[in-house]
Amino acid sequence: MQKMLKIMALLLVVTTVVFAAGCAEQGEEGASEEGASEEGASEEGASEEATPVEEGSSVEESVSAGEMPTYIVGTEAQFPPFEIVDSGGNVIGFDIDLLNAIAEDQGFKVEYLDQDFAGLIPALQTGNIDIIASGMTITEEREEQVDFSEPYITAGLALAVTVDNDEIQSVDDLQGKTVAVQTGSTGFMKAEELKEAGVIAGIKDFPHVNEAIEELKIGGADAMINDLPVTEAFIAAQPGVIKIVGEPLNSESYGFAVRSGNTELLEMINAGLENVTASGKYDELLTKLPNYMEE
Length: 295
Hints:
The chain has helices at about 1-50, 60, 95-105, 120-125, 140-145, 185-195, 210-215, 230-235, 265-280, 280-285; strands at about 70-75, 80, 85, 90, 110-115, 130, 145-150, 155, 155-160, 180, 200-205, 225, 240-245, 250-255, 255-260. By secondary structure, it is of the alpha/beta class.
């Protein structure tokens, strides 16, 4: 009996030692896992910590591309030299380069959506686009529908005819004539005004200005009313086809457009335009106007 008690006591001691060793090992593993978890959390927190903005750094340098807001820009990309599609299918032009420079200055991104000019304001109002950059003239009628940026170029309407037409020298010679224009443009509005006044007999309007030019070239219209800088750029690129006659029909300015009441975006565009102009970038882009016609 006494021998049996000694054996049981010995077994109890062994069991206690094994149990204690197991608990110690488990505690060390738990501590190791907990430490690893805390270390991982520390590293994760460090990676999410915002990078401090250095004094004098631009918005682009302090905000990653993923954090930049992206705005959809509506444009009618058949209005050279302000909007045009190059051989690679990219939308380029003066307006595009200028807005890209403004976006870079203000720290936002832009994506371009090509569509007919007449549909740009409705698309802006319904929220399908955020900005219009399409050689759009600032008019009182349009200001009732959208908010315009500060003017970025002074334009005007020109009367154009084929180079061999010596009959039409000015608006006074349009009696009973037909003019070609772009749908929804200020040239279209001017043509309607002249028709109502009994000056011209008919209007042929087209979605794209190049179609109006083509109509003039083939004799389908007697004259064309279109924005002066666009007509001048076409003549520079393809001399000997059409010519401008008489004085500009009016004076007008282009502006970028946003939805009515979108003051935050409008203020960014205006601030960016001011900075781009002050830096000399605007003048640099202006000298490139004829180049866009060659793309």
